[in-house]
């Protein structure tokens, strides 16, 4: 489908996406845990930070390129791992991977993908714009399952493992409970479905593979298990789901090359701190021992600029990618990321920053909350 009038920002994409998705898919993608306080805070917290632009700086030539884990990318905007992308578009993760490759940035593929990691990896090999791909992973109760997924990811050419650590159990999303969320009969968890030695039950009301995955979440996982995980391949480890400086230090001490400050998009512990509010503490704690990235609440180029000013090396974008995918498939994903890239470029120019290296802590300030009540 070709849009007669293209959206001009991510909020317009979100409104359009609601018209393209089933109610169950829309609720699954948009929902947060319990009262959705953290989901809302992820956005609201960005508004508390204000920018302090520099004047009379030559910004006639700007460069948004950078390196993450030694890989060159065209912009500090990565595509976050999101599950079940075929709910948004038949090509699902394939379309997203194509857009990432064209834009020269990283796609992080979810374990809960509806296209297999081999299919997605093959997309990254197309054309001259091969971009690095990361594989998002949970350490399962069945170590054989984890080992098989890591070995497949390494063999397929993924360049990093992204371990999600904020889901020892699944958060409660009441919209999904009300809807009795289930994958359509023609859709499956492609990365698990190809493991033919698994005995997968078929349960009433939901996909047997998804039920199997939920049973495989391992609440006994500790930092000590990271050593075993890294023994499975030479891939660098990225730890996603960090909201505290001391946890960030532990991640680095146990081998992480990068940490992602994230609260799982507000989908796990409701009332958890907003990602942007946790960022500075993590950056200070880690220092130069690992790269720090931010996930959660990014909707404008100015959000990215604030995150970079607070010390993030790059940001990850999740839900808006799904809006683009639902509206126009690969072209929609590409346009969503282009909108963010162009907004960041404009914000940098207006802030006196020609390169990412020009962005520093002096650019962003958090104003105190003022009590507006009359005495």
Briefly, what is this?
The protein has one domain (10-365): Aldolase class I (TIM Barrel).
Determine the N-to-C terminus distance: 57 Å
Number of helices: 14
CATH architecture descriptor name: Alpha-Beta Barrel
Radius of gyration: 20 Å
What percent of the residues sit in helical stretches (DSSP H or I)? 40-55%
Q: Provide the number of structural domains.
A: 1
Q: Which strand order spans the largest sheet, edge to edge or round the barrel?
A: 4-11-10-9-8-7-6-5
Unreliable sequence segments: 202-206
CATH fold node name: TIM Barrel
- DSSP strand count: 12
Mean pLDDT, all residues: 93
How would you explain this protein's 3D organization?
The protein has 375 residues and is an alpha/beta fold. It has 14 helices and 12 strands. It has helices at residues 10-20, 23-30, 37-48, 92-103, 117-124, 143-156, 174-179, 190-193, 208-216, 225-230, 245-253, 275-286, 301-309, 319-351; strands at 49-51, 66-68, 71-73, 77-79, 107-109, 133-137, 160-164, 237-242, 256-261, 291-295, 314-317, 364-366. An 8-stranded parallel beta sheet has the order 4-11-10-9-8-7-6-5. It has a two-stranded antiparallel ribbon with strand order 1-12. The chain has a two-stranded antiparallel ribbon with strand order 2-3. A hairpin with a 2-residue loop joins strand 2 and strand 3. The longest helix has 33 residues, at 319-351. The chain is globular and about 65 Å long.
